[in-house]
Amino acid sequence: MNAPANLKYTKSDEWFDPATGAMGITDYAQSQLSDIVFVELLVDEGDTVEAGKPIASVESVKASAEIYASASGKVSAVNKGLSDKPETLNSDPFGEAWMIKVEGGSTGDVMDSAAYEKYCEERAH
Amino acid sequence: MTYIPISPKERDAMLSTIGVKSLDDLFDAIPAKHRFPKLDLPKALTEMEAMQELSDIAQANENVRGDLISFLGAGMYNHYIPSAVDHMLRRGEFYTAYTPYQPEISQGTLQAIFEYQSLMSALTGMDVSNASHYDGATATAEAVNLAYAQYRGKRKKVVVSPTLHPQYRAVIRTYTQGMELEVAGDDANTNLESNPNELINLVDDNTSIVIVQYPDFFGRVYDYTKLIEAVHAKGALVCVVANPTALAMYKTPGAMGADIVVGDGQPLGIPMWYGGPSVGFFTTRKNMVHKMAGRLVGETVDNRGQRSYVLTLTAREQHIKRERATSNICTNQGLIALGTAVYLSLLGKTGLRQVAELCYQKAHYAAKELSKIEGMGLCFTEPFFHEFALCVNRPVEEVNAHLLEHGILGGYDLGQDYPALKDHMLIAVTEMNSKEDIDALVEVLSEVSHD
Hints:
The structure holds two protein chains of two kinds. Chain A is about 20% helix and about 35% strand. Chain A is of the alpha+beta class. In chain A, the strands form two sheets. In chain A, strands 1-2-3-9-8-5 form a six-stranded antiparallel beta sheet. Chain A has a three-stranded antiparallel beta sheet with strand order 4-6-7, with no helix packed on it. In chain A, a hairpin with a 3-residue loop joins strand 6 and strand 7. In chain B, strands 2-8-7-6-5-3-4 form a seven-stranded mixed beta sheet, sandwiched between helices. Chain B has a four-stranded antiparallel beta sheet with strand order 11-12-15-14, with helices on one face. Chain B has two domains: about 120 residues, Aspartate Aminotransferase, domain 1 (Alpha-Beta Complex); about 260 residues, Type I PLP-dependent aspartate aminotransferase-like (Major domain) (Aspartate Aminotransferase, domain 2, 3-Layer(aba) Sandwich).
C-alpha cells in the first residue's frame, strides 16, 4: 500500500500535507471503496473546517462514505474539478485528487507513513 | 424456499429462555375479559352466498364505465385504457413479484422498469428518470428533498405556486415537517390571475427550489421558460409538475430548462379506482442523478456481451447511504409503472398526441358551449388544456347533486381550496366524453341556471 513519507495520516484513512495544507483520501481508502463514481465536496473556500468533521461525500459502485478533515483550519482552496473526475480518486489519490487545502492547518491525532502502513497491514488480516 | 414452522421443542426452549411457561403468559398484560371478546358474527356463508352478497354491495357503486358521464378531474383523469394493459399487468411474472433482493436475477422486471424510465425521460424532455414514486404528490415532495440535498441544507426556502394542486401542497408541508424549511407562495388567498412569472418576487438567495404545475391546477398552460431563467439566475432549481397527457402536445418542461419534472402517471392507462394506487414519475438532469431518490435501472452488457439490466448508482439510496441519503424512500410502484409503460408503448408518440388533441378539442367545445349559459362563465382567459374553471353562481354541491340525478358526475368544487372561487367548479373533459355527453352537461346546467 502506497503511503508517501511526507504526509500525515488519520485512522479514518485521510492524508494531510503539512507543507501545502492539502488533504484527501489515501490509496488504502480508494482500494477499499473500489470504483468511485461520485464525489461531492461539502465545504467551500473561506469555510472553517475542524479535524474529524465531514468535508466530502464519495460514492463508489457499492458503497458510500463520508470523508473527514485530517486537519483543522480555514479552507484556502477546493479542488473544483474533482467532481467531474471522481475516477482520479482511484488513480491518483495523493496527487490530482486532493480535496481541499487549509491555511494554518493543525492536525488532530495523526500517524506518520510508517505507522499508517502498519495500521493498514493490521486491518488486512 | 421451504417454510419450516417452529417445532414444539423449539417453542419450549424459547419460552424457557425468556422465563415464561406458556404462550398465553405473554398476553398477561391484556385483562382476561378483553382477551377473547365474544364477536357475535352472523352465521357463515357459502361461497355462492358470499359472492351474491359482495356483488350486491359492489352494484351499489356507480362507476364511470357505463353508469356515469364524468367531468371530474383535478388530478385524476378518465381516459380510455386499452385492454392489453390489464392483460400484461395480470401476468404472474409481474403481478406477484416484489422487487427482488437480488434484482439482477429478474431481468424482465428490470427491463420493464428501464423501458418505463426511457419513456418518461422522452415524454418530459429530461435526461434521467427513476423507477417511480407512490404518486404525483410524493414525487413532488421528493423534488423538495432533492433541492434540499443539492444545497446541502443551506438554502431553507421553498417557493410553491398557489396553483399547484392543493393536495400536493399539503403533502409538501407534511414531508418538510421538522426540516426547518420555509414554504412560501403556498397561499390560497393569493391573486390567482397573477402571471406565474411573478413568483420570482418570492425567490431569494435562500431559496432552493420553485415548484409550478403544467398545466396548472386550473388547467391553464404557461410557458415557464422565462421564469426558469430568472430562478436560475438566483441560483435555485425549478421543478415542473406536469400532466403526462398534455406533454404529448405541448413544449416539454425539459425544453423550458426545468431541473426536475415530476407528475402523476395515472392518466397513462391507470384506472381512477378509488383515488389510487397510482404512480409518481420523477425525472431530472444527469448532473443531479446522485441526489435523486428512488431506484434506478441501467442497461449494460453481461460477461458474454449480451444486453442486460442492473440496478445502478445504488450507493445513493438509503439502504447504503443511511441518514445522508436524499430520501428515506426507495420504494417504487413497479406494477403501476409497468402499466404506464405498456399504455405508452401501445399508443406510441402519435397515439398519445391524438389522445391529447381529442381532450383539448372536446374541452374547448365544452368551454365554449358552457360559457353561453346565462349566469355562468369561464373564470380565466388564459389558454387551457383539458380542464377549466367555470363559475356556476350557486353552490357547487347543489349543482353537482342536480347533475348526478341526470347521471353526470360534475366538476371539482374549487371553493374547498380557494375561498375566492366559491361557486366555481373545475371541469375536466377527456376523449371519453362524446359530443352528446358534453351537450347533456350543457343542457342540465342550463336548466340549473334557470331554476
